[in-house]
User: Fold this.
Amino acid sequence: MAEKFDVIVVGAGPAGSSAAYTLAKAGLNVIMFERGEYPGSKNVMGGVLYRHQLQEIIPDFIEQGAPFERPIVEQRFWLLDEQSAFQAGYKGLEWAKPPYNNFTVFRAKFDQWFAGKAVEQGALLINETVVTEVIVEDGKVIGVRTDRPDGDVYADIVILADGVNSLLAKQLGFHKELRPDEVALAVMQVINLPAEKIEERFNLEPNQGTTIEIFGDSTKGMLGTAFIYTNKESISIGVGTLLSGLMKHRIRPYELLETLKHHPLVRKLIEGGEAKEYLAHLIPEGGYHSIPKLVGHGVMVVGDAAQLVNGIHREGSNLAMASGRLAAETAILAKQVGDYSENLLDTYRIKLMESFVGQDLKKYKDAAHTLDRHPQYFKEFIPMINRAASEMFTVDGASKWEKQKRILGMVQERGTVNTIRDLYRVWKVMK
Ligand code: FAD
Assistant:
């Protein structure tokens, strides 16, 4: 008879390790499978990791040595044109000290640490093992099949934390093949630079970091973003766009990244750096409308596997951790009452939808699709905002009234009614 556990967790990313940690801490018998050589070895993220959700799971994560790069003290936003950028952002030194707001991380280090914490609580972690199938009997999930010899393992509950493609949720019929407009392809590079150079170029003290989110020219007008994040002794630079945009415009993502690296406003930030790693990964971007069925008898889906990414705010790791924790709490309840039915496990879906995860995804439910259907926001508005800023800030003897008139002229040129309609549409999907 194969071994039986209380819970099987598939995937040791932030979602899986949150679930495994919470379950093991509550005394449940839990096994977590990871296909990589070690947790994080296959994982890619910009990456900014959010303090709040981690603290809810491990309150003293700093004392426990969570491997962070830099606490972020500044978030900048650029609307990029060919030779310029309209910039906004916030720098707050309150984020430079505990409890902090968020941190840059390397997933290869962070995931390994986080999964290790779950193991310390008593979870069994099995690396280099692919879960090939969910075992279903009489409509109930009762375990998983792995690629190991005699690789069937049984449990009362299986938590699928297997990331964006989730072949296992697909096998259960919870979702279909992802559409190209539901998923972004992101490519990124880690570029080594001495810490002092980073601090000089980004105006930072040691142990402070900056993020820059870039819209516009970085994706050649397609829906997507680019990013530049500071690590201790390197910079992560990347760009992500919907697969549908890349297919339509026949652009290869690495071409976008190379163009970004050579942009006159970006080039100087990474100058002299040594490219260390080149990474590519999919990001679920379908939002609220793409959330699959989340629960069945004996099974729950969490994190990217459940398409839980807030693309507007580049949040994914925190939604993954929150969903992993909520699924684990539901599994603990199920164990207490001895009920693993879909009806009981639906508690997870309800709690998730009531939490910031469901609420935020609902708030922006139509944002990505609207921006994708109306390319003028990236193609026309961003260049226009740059021209307007250039006009306003160029001192050329014209009065500021005259400058306002010229800017209004730009709006009239593209059509005042059209512009008001476009602004109203975007306000409606973001409000
Ligand atoms: P994953 O991290 O994908 O983990 C899934 C795990 O399951 C992996 O370890 C994988 O190896 C394993 N696995 C898969 N299939 C199997 C199987 N069959 N058997 C065994 N193991 C399996 N989010 C942020 O919050 N901030 C950011 O700055 C940010 N930047 C990003 C930049 C890029 C370029 C990308 C690609 C993503 C970014 N994200 C960011 C999103 C974030 O990375 C994800 O939302 C998050 O990693 C989801 O965690 P997860 O645990 O659900 O999935």
Summary: The radius of gyration is 23 Å. Residues 368-430 form one domain. The chain has three domains: 4-67+106-175+292-354, 180-284, 368-430.
